[in-house]
Amino acid sequence: MKRIFWAADSTVQNNDVTTYPQTGIGQVFPMFVKEGVFVLNHARNGRSTKSFMDEGRLDAIDKEIGEGDFLFIQFGHNDEKKEDPTRYTEPFSTYIENLEKYINVARKHGANPVLITPIERRHFDENKKLMKSMHTDYVAGMKKAAEKNNVPLIDLFTMSRAALEKAGEVESRKWHMFFDAGIYENYPDGKDDNTHLRYEGALLYAGLIAKGLRGLGGIYEKLIVDGAEQYWV
């Protein structure tokens, strides 16, 4: 039995009917793994590397993760919220330091840490061109952490940005909690949401992570079911 533990934010978390149609990447990722691989999704809405630890969520993983398991670490959206000291981290200091704490939890148990850069937000300008990202420094910070600690990294940020640019402003609406997608009669606040995903987007980005794992080869490639490539872009 192989287990994947996932520490992350709302773009990954499991959802229920109260947040439908929002769907997290970790919620659909089991569709991409082989029989005998189990996903334990600890991701929660609104968490950063800091608040996830402060709430004891990394401690919970520490108590359960074991040799040969995997820890997927995917943060950035909430670390960049400077207005909130309970979540904010500085991209080239405290953010990297926090990522190293997650890495160390995995390694002390003989588990395998994997860093995953945050997905890009769906922000297009008035000319329907994808705007400059707010994640850039945190993507760079995570890459520095990966290099410094010799940890494999999946650059979901770059892959998701390429997918958004290829799809364009209109076609990419179906991936997000976008009011014009046609299914939002019961959406709680009726506002367009260019960060959180619906099923189609979660499936797309879970597929891109599977693609990244396949590209890493070795023990990471062996997690992914044959045929997953049909969902890669």
SSE string, helix = H, strand = E?
EHEHHEHEHEHEEHH
Tell me the helix content: 25-40%
Report the total helices.
8
Radius of gyration (Å): 17 Å
Describe the main β-sheet briefly.
Answer: 5 strands, parallel
Round the mean pLDDT to the nearest integer and report it.
90
Shape from CA axes?
Answer: globular
Strand order of the largest sheet: 2-1-3-4-5
Count of DSSP E strands?
7
How much beta, percentage-wise? Answer: 5-15%
Distance between the termini: 30 Å
Uncertain residue ranges: 183-190
Structural class: alpha/beta
Structural features:
8 helices; two-stranded antiparallel ribbon; 233 residues; single chain; five-stranded parallel beta sheet; 36% helix; alpha/beta; globular
Describe the structure.
By secondary structure, the chain is an alpha/beta fold. Helices cover 36% and strands 13% of the residues. The protein has helices spanning 25-28, 49-54, 57-64, 94-108, 136-149, 156-171, 199-216, 218-221; strands at residues 2-8, 37-41, 70-74, 112-116, 153-154, 176-177, 193-197. It has a five-stranded parallel sheet with strand order 2-1-3-4-5. It has a two-stranded antiparallel ribbon with strand order 6-7. Helix 4 links the parallel strand 3 (70-74) and strand 4 (112-116). The two termini are 30 Å apart.
Give a brief rundown of this model:
36% of the residues lie in helices and 13% in strands. It has 233 residues and is α/β, with parallel strands linked by helices. α4 crosses α5.
